[in-house]
Known about the structure:
Chain A has strands spanning 5-7, 10-13, 19-24, 31-37, 43-50, 65-69, 75-79, 88-95, 106-107, 111-115. By secondary structure, chain A is mostly beta strands.
Amino acid sequence: GAGVSQSPSNKVTEKGKDVELRCDPISGHTALYWYRQRLGQGLEFLIYFQGNSAPDKSGLPSDRFSAERTGESVSTLTIQRTQQEDSAVYLCASSLGWGTATDTQYFGPGTRLTVL
Amino acid sequence: AQSVTQPDIHITVSEGASLELRCNYSYGATPYLFWYVQSPGQGLQLLLKYFSGDTLVQGIKGFEAEFKRSQSSFNLRKPSVHWSDAAEYFCAVGESAGKSTFGDGTTLTVKP
């Protein structure tokens, strides 16, 4: 079946502009995660959605970052007033179960964000 | 706080040679450990995971990893590397629901 998809694949924006990144999880997956991967580094957890529960936003780096998810479907990550340090690949993942550590996360291809 | 260290930023091996990628972690309880591979233009793919039980874990693509509690390590191995294994490899510790701490990755180059 279809995997996790993300759009756009690449986004170039000017400093100060807002951007929206989209993630379509695997159908039926109740958990959804956003990560940031800076060049040459590992993944940083940003936010986690589980069903209709309140999202875990503990990884969001600043109040310029926000994310929404409608039910168990698509999620959008919004970055307001982008800064050059926001340049990174933003990865989305989904998992079937309740998001426990034993779940297998399936990752999308990522959105490469470049802030000029 | 938990952390993951991958000491080797870049490793080069010849095709057919054996491979070992190192991973050390710091974690206050029994760790949930993962290895992922990221190939150019592709998303991260889970190679294997350890939760409990047998400390030698088998994964996909002929990879295995061994959990050594005394050394706080979870090294990834493959007996014979193929050119298609060239990629970046990430070790991760799952701390709670979906929140994993990742290492900075090891880039594997395979020489013909």
